[in-house]
């Protein structure tokens, strides 16, 4: 007598054997298709969008408010560099199965590893604080105080990272990228002149004022952020991606970079079409930019800006402690991994817990200087970025380490140009702001 197979098991067996499971109507088909799509996404999309955090949104809002569409052309250049760097980090993670800090320690010694780690840690805690500030600011738009929302968000993030599995955490992070779609809608509601937008994209316009250069470096620093590459490479390695999967991982990393920078461009367009056009050239935070949009683009634009800020802040507030903990654990040779319990990876879990706790405490302090924190940290990122990019470039072009997957040709030239470009920006920033040139 033939045993009866339960319906759920039958669908799984059918899928494994290549057949299509029978679904109960359209309502069941749509969630399954959506879950299938989410399965194709991963660290590349998460890492790139984590860069559009509260500080990034504040920076892009400043760019649009002060210079209109004048810096949109730079987003095109940065997108090419970001796509190359993201795909390179994913490739190293897949080929070597190791994170960047671990590779630096093994190939250049503990001193260089400590130096590179210190360069990341200088900025990461400040960015983490700014993202929890962003969570509070986003919900404050709805009248909910930060002293209530920030601790709740911090507890939820800690539980997802420490008590959940890697797959569950990654799926939640992917869902947190959905609010970014609010920014293109907000830009459309702002009714920009799309002809002017197109002209600004293809016609570079440079200024030599200190304010312009400051935002120039801040924009580069918040778009190609060191912790993005650190998280992406370590997460790719932990995900168990193999060298034969490189084409799919590369496509995912590049598409994530393009999507993230399109979102950044729409933020600039929205604020440029409203705030810059009406003479409001300064905003202190992303939440203030949201409030300022309302008189010119309507309450829906303010709400959409707030939704995007909340999703962006939650995503980055989760990724930053993970990226920092990866770096510390890899640099010192400790056990690491999402979903590891404190007894299994005490240093990894301890760094995550400490960063979330400190960021939460600082974020709920009344009167925190938001603009100095958000924009200042992004400038620090712009200065420190060449350090990490230099190590990524050197390691990715190593024949011994990467074999046939090493950097070469056009990709190697673009990476070298990115390192040189960001290094030059850092020198110019120091000359303008410190030496007064």
Automatic annotation (TrEMBL):
Cell compartments where the protein resides: Membrane
GO cellular component, one term: plasma membrane
BP terms from Gene Ontology: iron ion transmembrane transport
Chief place where the protein resides: membrane
UniProt keywords, alphabetically: Membrane, Transmembrane, Transmembrane helix, Transport
MF GO annotations: cadmium ion transmembrane transporter activity; manganese ion transmembrane transporter activity
Highest taxon above the source species: Bacteria
PANTHER family referenced in this protein's UniProt entry, alphabetically: NATURAL RESISTANCE-ASSOCIATED MACROPHAGE PROTEIN 2 (PTHR11706:SF33), SOLUTE CARRIER PROTEIN FAMILY 11 MEMBER (PTHR11706)
Protein name: Divalent metal cation transporter
């Amino acid at each position: 007598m033939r045993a009866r197979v339960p319906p759920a098991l039958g669908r799984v067996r059918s899928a494994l054997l290549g057949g299509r499971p029978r679904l109960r109507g359209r309502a069941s088909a749509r969630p399954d298709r959506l879950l299938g799509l989410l399965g194709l996404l991963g660290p590349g999309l998460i890492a790139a969008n984590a860069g559009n955090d509260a500080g990034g949104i504040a920076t892009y809002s400043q760019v649009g408010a002060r210079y209109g569409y004048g810096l949109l052309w730079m987003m095109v250049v940065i997108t090419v560099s970001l796509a190359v760097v993201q795909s390179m980090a994913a490739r190293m993670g897949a080929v070597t199965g190791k994170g960047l800090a671990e590779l630096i320690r093994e190939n250049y010694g503990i001193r260089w590893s400590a130096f590179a780690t210190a360069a990341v840690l200088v900025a990461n805690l400040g960015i983490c604080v700014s993202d929890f500030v962003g969570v509070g600011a986003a919900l404050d738009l709805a009248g909910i105080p930060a002293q209530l929302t920030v601790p709740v968000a911090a507890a939820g993030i800690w539980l997802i990272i420490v008590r959940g599995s890697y797959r569950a955490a990654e799926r939640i992070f992917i869902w947190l990228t959905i609010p970014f779609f609010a920014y293109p809608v907000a830009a459309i509601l702002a009714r920009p002149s799309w002809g002017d937008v197109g002209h600004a994209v293809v016609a570079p316009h440079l200024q030599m004022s200190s304010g312009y250069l400051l935002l120039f470096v801040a924009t580069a620093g918040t778009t190609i952020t060191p912790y993005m590459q650190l998280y992406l490479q370590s997460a790719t390695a932990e995900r168990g991606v193999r060298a034969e999967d490189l084409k799919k991982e590369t496509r995912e990393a590049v598409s994530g970079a393009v999507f993230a920078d399109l979102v950044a461009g729409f933020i600039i367009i929205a604020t440029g079409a409203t705030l810059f056009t009406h003479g409001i050239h300064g905003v202190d935070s992303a939440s203030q930019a949201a409030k300022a949009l309302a008189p010119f683009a309507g309450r829906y634009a303010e709400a959409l800006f707030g939704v995007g800020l909340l999703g962006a802040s939650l995503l980055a507030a989760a990724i930053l402690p993970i990226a920092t903990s990866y770096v510390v654990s890899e640099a010192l040779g400790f056990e690491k991994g999402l979903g590891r319990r404190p007894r299994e990876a005490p240093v990894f879990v301890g760094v995550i817990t400490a960063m979330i706790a400190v960021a939460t405490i600082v974020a709920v302090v009344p009167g925190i200087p938001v603009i100095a924190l958000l924009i200042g940290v992004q400038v620090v990122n712009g200065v420190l970025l060449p350090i990490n990019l230099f190590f990524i470039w050197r390691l990715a072009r190593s024949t011994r380490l990467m074999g046939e997957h090493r950097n070469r040709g056009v990709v190697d030239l673009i990476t070298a140009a990115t390192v040189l470009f960001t290094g030059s920006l850092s020198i110019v920033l120091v000359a303008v702001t410190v030496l007064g040139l």
